[in-house]
Design a protein that fits this description.
The chain has 267 residues and is of the alpha+beta class. It is 31% helix and 24% strand. The protein has an 8-stranded mixed beta sheet, with helices on both faces. Helix 1 crosses helix 2 and helix 5 packs antiparallel against helix 6. The chain is globular. The termini are far apart. Bound molecules: 2-oxoadipic acid and nickel (II) ion. Its EC number is 1.13.11.93. This is 2-oxoadipate dioxygenase/decarboxylase.
Length: 267
């Protein structure tokens, strides 16, 4: 386990940058040399007892995080929870898992073969949350997974890592709307996820979000390699609740579309 929130997030950020070079460029573009506040990061997994959501969450609970909202994504067969730290400066954490029992027997068989390759002690290891894919997979099995579930395909090749960091637009000095952020990103040549519109959510649900489409990285299969969507960068603008405090939760209908930031072109 990590000894501090800062240490864990620094390790996650460095690991994330190895497959998401555009995040550093965007960080500089939006921050203009000033610090960027990170709203949240997200992780994915399979709901297997060995490696389920709770195994990831344990690392955050140990650092003082608390469980908050729950989210259901029926069509994508996902379940998620978010976690917050009593220190509001600590980024929020969103963890989802694929509900394997709702997937096809073929998908379940391929995923079981991946999970069989994992050492039982991995989830307790300090670097679990940025250990990448702790298994090997053939290109054919990857394609079978991705054809049924983009999430399963991504998870099989990228595994355990922050799949995105999120710029807190509330804290940016040079931008006061998500629209302004999106325009600057497009002007600089970054591709935004337009599933459900470039801006997901609204002031009514107290959260507006947008995201880039994931960068691509070279993935090694047991029988070759391919360039596939890796990780993306998200932008979040939060609105105050009636009590004046900024909303800290997530919005399922928006999250449903954010997941698609790692979709392959065919997906
Ligand atoms: C998480 C998607 C949801 C949000 O902020 O609503 C999300 C993922 O892509 O794993 O990040
Ligand atoms: Ni997010």
């Amino acid at each position: 386990m990590h000894t501090s929130v800062e240490e864990l997030f620094e390790a996650l950020w460095q690991h994330y940058l190895t497959v998401t070079p555009s995040a550093l460029k965007i960080h500089d573009l939006l921050g203009g040399g000033k610090a960027i506040v990170n709203d949240h990061v997200a992780f994915r997994t399979f709901n297997h007892p060995k490696l389920g959501l709770d195994k990831l969450a344990a690392h955050f609970l140990a650092l003082g995080y608390e469980q908050k909202g729950e989210y259901h994504f029926e069509a994508k067969k996902l379940y998620a929870r978010h976690y917050e730290h009593p220190d509001p400066a600590a980024p929020k954490v969103f963890i989802s898992e694929l509900l394997l029992e709702q997937c096809s027997p073929t998908l379940q068989r391929i995923v079981a073969r991946l999970i069989d390759q994992v050492d039982d002690t991995l989830p307790e290891q300090k670097d679990f949350l940025y250990s990448g894919a702790p298994w090997q997979i053939s290109h054919a099995d990857y394609k079978t997974l991705a054809a049924e579930s983009e999430y399963a395909g991504w998870m099989a090749v990228y595994g355990y890592r922050a799949n995105h960091f999120t710029v807190s637009v509330n804290h940016l000095e040079d931008y006061d709307s998500l629209d302004a952020v999106n325009s600057a990103l497009k002007q600089a040549g970054f591709r935004l996820n337009d599933a459900g519109g470039e801006i997901k959510g609204s002031p009514d649900v107290l959260l507006e979000q947008s995201s880039t489409m994931a960068d691509t990285a070279l993935v090694q299969f047991t029988d070759g390699e391919a360039s596939l969507p890796s990780c993306f960068y998200e932008f979040a603008l939060r609105y105050p609740k009636p009590d004046g405090e900024l909303y800290t939760g997530f919005v399922a209908a928006s999250a449903d579309k954010i997941f698609e930031s790692t979709n392959t072109a065919s997906g």
